[in-house]
Design brief:
heterodimer; A: about 375 residues; two-stranded antiparallel ribbon; two-stranded antiparallel sheet; 6 strands; B: about 325 residues; mainly alpha; ABC transporter involved in vitamin B12 uptake, BtuC; 4 strands; disordered C terminus
């Protein structure tokens, strides 16, 4: 491939190019809001915490950013994870159930009720470990199906997308448990640390750790290699299966943390609501951020920008009181449009046809494709 | 003739049939006191499976061609509320149901063909296009009407009452007859028509199919159009069944349809499978739900879990079968 020679010297411009459109879209959306919503850009200190529309975007977008982080690595290996919403529900429901004495008594026995009453701090720590471990294990199940049984990622994760929600309902027996009596858990979704939402610090920590692990070690290169060609990677000595297995486990873990953030933010864990329709937001964030669905290249910062873009879009629609279900329409249209712009076939067919009269060579589709957006 | 029965092509379908019969016998023995093996229950399986069964026809062709359709649950929900709104004189124009149904089938088909266009002409992954389609159509359904809307029309009442009586209290209802008729047509189409053979060819090996001169555009647009049509028809059957439309219903039906296809022995990689298998798959899913109902102690969420488990088991079986038969003879 001739482009590969050029990639090395054009590394920075390539990253810049990938970030350019999502950042531009984000800025345009913010400008639109700034013009039509009073005080949109105003950030002020209230009771020791920053507040304002912009802070809301970060706070509400914490879960999407996390799920998109896991999804980025999965898509980087050429897969996809449709089960993230269900995994969020499982983690959230498990955490909420474990601080509900009635559930503890019925499911685990009186010892658990006593343990929670006597050592609430240790119990909360335990339940965090348990619910996140459960999320990771569910992710590993996906990884097992994809890497060992070689089921297509769409189907493997679709099984959990539907069954996982059933599993979450099974855990809580169809009940909706609340976090009302456990302020330490509510802190995850609602708390403030150094003026910023605690969830944001959590996301930042996970982002930085993941970025360092993938970009300062060979791990990121391995993931991209597996996404590009897993057979060739295998012959080159990479443990392609292990890498695939791990990205799904990691995606599960990210979804688990996101589920805790999302549920503690609203103080309740409804198995039917937590994480519903989250998979589209996450895929949107990743794809808009410049990670190709075909795998072989991933871009964490791009996914973060993509997540902020989708959250800004969601919050904008909240401002205009659009029903969440109806808000799916513009999201679906935008993701299709972005994928079209990324599709070489689309550029060749449509953009090529449009610009053919003006250009002697049809290879300039890149700039024109952007212009059409 | 006997040799044909042992053709490798029929092994998966034989396995599916065996599972269906075994499950039924198991249910008949275990719930003997509740008259499990009654004609009423058997017809009930077809009645309960009509919506998923019809939707699974389109899914079968799409999967045979090597694609996937995640939008079908939303298409069903959209169709129910679309028809309900068109028929309603209060919130809609008050059309005659026959006209509304025709319109819904048209809209479904056009939507499916559009998905096919995105997939074929712009080379976008089918899961992405149909996932976006799933959300788009779900949103549109809510735009049409926000909540459940009843359908009251003589045409619907007569459709709900009509049917062929099999024995006392057992009626072969309109949805069941539509289901059977659709499968008859689909089986004929898949095995006898040029289009059907082309779908198998494209699913088996797209590059060779193209080199053979098969129009990929025709096949891809055709299967996704068919998927939209059967999805809409499933939605129409759902309105007959429920007597209403609801934009929030039928979440997760895409998995049911895919599960029915896979349980029916169609390979997810495309090119291999039989349409009749999807009907058997639908019946197996229905049978398991019936058994969950009969069990009494298990709650509704077991239906979701059981569908997933069943799908998993059959995928596992397929993987093993493919592994053991690889290298022996063709494909």
């Amino acid at each position: 491939m001739p482009e590969q020679v050029a990639t090395k010297t054009r590394r920075l411009p390539a990253a810049f190019e990938a970030l350019f459109w999502p950042v531009l879209a984000l800025v345009l959306l913010l400008v639109f809001n700034a013009l039509f919503t009073p005080n949109y850009l105003k950030v002020e200190m209230v009771d020791g915490r920053l507040s304002g529309y912009l802070i809301d975007i970060f706070r509400d977008g914490a879960a999407v950013m996390l799920v998109a982080l896991g999804m980025t690595l999965v898509i980087g290996t050429g897969g996809v994870d449709l089960s993230v919403g269900a995994i969020m529900a499982i983690a959230a429901v498990l955490a909420a159930a474990m601080v509900t004495p009635a559930w503890l008594g019925d499911t685990l026995g009186p010892w658990a009720v006593d343990a929670y009453a006597n050592h609430p701090g240790a119990w909360v720590a335990l339940l965090l470990v348990v619910s996140l471990a459960a999320a990771a294990v569910v992710g590993m199940w996906n990884g097992l199906l994809v890497s060992v049984l070689r089921v297509q990622p769409i189907i493997a994760t679709l099984i959990l997308m539907v069954s996982g929600r059933g599993l979450a309902q099974l855990i809580c027996g169809g009940q909706i448990y609340l976090f009302d009596d456990e302020p330490s858990l509510r802190f995850i979704g609602q708390g403030t640390l150094l003026g910023l939402p605690f969830s944001l610090w959590l996301v930042a920590a996970m982002l930085i750790v993941t970025a360092l692990l993938t970009r300062r070690t060979a791990l990121g290169l391995m993931i991209e290699s597996v996404g590009d060609n897993d057979l060739a990677s295998h012959y080159a000595g990479l443990r392609a299966r292990t890498i695939k297995f791990m990205v799904y486990a990691f995606s599960g873990l990210c979804a688990g943390v996101a589920g805790l953030i999302e549920s503690t933010n609203v103080s309740s864990a409804n198995a039917n609501k937590i994480g519903l329709w989250f998979e589209l937001d996450a895929i949107f964030a990743v794809v808009v951020g410049g990670t190709a669905l075909t795998g072989g290249r991933f871009f964490i910062i791009g996914s973060v920008v993509g997540a902020l873009l989708i959250q800004t879009l969601t919050n904008t629609m909240y401002v205009y009181e659009v029903r969440p279900e109806v808000a799916l329409i513009p999201k679906a249209l935008i993701i299709l449009a972005v994928c079209l712009l990324q599709s070489a076939a689309f550029r060749r067919r449509v953009v090529g046809a449009l610009t053919a009269p003006f250009k002697s060579k049809g290879t300039q589709g890149n700039a024109a494709a952007g212009g059409a957006g | 003739m006997i040799a044909a029965l042992f053709d490798r092509k029929y092994i998966p379908i034989a396995a599916t049939l065996a599972v269906l019969i075994l499950l039924f016998v198991f249910g008949a023995v275990r719930y003997d006191d509740r008259n499990f093996a009654s004609l009423y229950n058997i017809v009930g399986l077809f009645r309960g499976g009509a919506v998923v069964g019809v939707a699974a026809i389109g899914a079968t062709f799409i999967i045979l061609s090597g694609g996937i359709d995640l939008s079908v649950g939303s298409v069903i929900a959209f169709t129910t509320i679309f028809v309900a709104t068109l028929v309603s004189p209060e919130v809609g124009p008050g059309w005659h149901p026959a006209l509304a149904i025709a319109a819904a089938l048209g809209v479904g088909t056009v939507f499916g063909v559009m998905q096919g266009c995105f997939i074929h002409f712009f080379a976008l992954p089918p899961f992405l296009v149909t996932l976006a389609g799933m959300f788009l159509v779900r949103g549109l359904a809510f735009v049409i009407h926000e909540q459940s809307l009843g359908i009251t029309h003589d045409f619907y009442t007569s459709m709900q009452m009509a049917g062929v009586p099999l024995s006392r209290g057992v009626l072969l209802t309109v949805p069941v007859m539509v289901l059977l008729a659709c499968y008859a047509l689909a089986i004929f189409g898949a095995s006898m028509l040029k289009f059907g053979r082309e779908v198998y060819a494209v699913g088996g090996d797209e590059a060779s199919a193209r080199l053979m001169g098969i129009s990929l555009a025709r096949v891809k647009l055709g299967v996704y159009g068919l998927g939209g049509l059967t999805g809409a028809l499933a939605g129409v059957l759902a309105t007959v069944d429920m007597g209403s439309g609801n934009p929030a219903e039928f979440i997760g039906y895409e998995l049911d349809a895919i599960a029915a296809v896979v349980i029916g022995g169609t390979l997810l990689t495309g090119g291999v499978g039989l349409v009749i298998g999807s009907l058997l798959g639908t019946l197996i899913i229905g049978l398991i739900r019936l058994m969950i109902d009969n069990e009494g102690t298990l709650s509704t969420w077991w239906t979701n879990i059981s569908t997933g488990l069943l799908l998993f088991l059959f995928i596992l079986m397929q993987t093993l079968v493919v592994k053991f038969t690889a290298g022996k003879g063709r494909g």
